[in-house]
Specification:
With 117 residues, this protein is α+β, with helices and mostly antiparallel strands. 30% of the residues lie in helices and 43% in strands. A hairpin with a 2-residue loop joins β5 and β6 (90-100).
Length: 117
């Protein structure tokens, strides 16, 4: 799959999935052995099960989030995608870095984000 198409599909699916807390739709973007790191000093989540568990825990405290993912910046199999989420009184702004395989599946993702009231 073309990396630009894969990156836009990733952004669109995450935006919809986060808005509706649809973990199944989001986790379908990842290979079985994908690795996700949330923030630079946290241990990585390896494999779909660990990534899905992390996403579910992250969604637990949110209600009716408003989620916007930007147009991905793509270079070869790599993409950077900014996002903004407002849930209740909290706004989160961040960026996810994604590496795709030849089939357009995420093999490695890394987030950096910040929250503010």
């Amino acid at each position: 799959m073309d990396p630009r198409t894969a990156a836009q599909h990733f952004a669109d699916t995450w935006q919809h999935g986060w808005t509706h807390h649809d973990v199944d739709a989001i986790i379908a973007l990842y290979t079985d052995d994908a690795v996700h790191t949330s923030m630079p000093f946290r241990p990585p989540h390896t494999g779909k099960t660990q990534i899905a568990d992390y996403i579910r825990r992250s969604f637990e405290a949110e209600h009716s989030p408003r989620v916007v993912f930007s147009t991905p910046l793509v270079d070869g199999p790599h993409a950077a995608i900014e996002y903004h989420v407002t849930a209740g009184e909290t706004t989160l702004a961040g960026c996810v870095f994604v590496t795709f395989d030849n089939d357009g599946m995420a093999v490695r993702t890394r987030d950096y984000w910040h929250e503010t009231p």
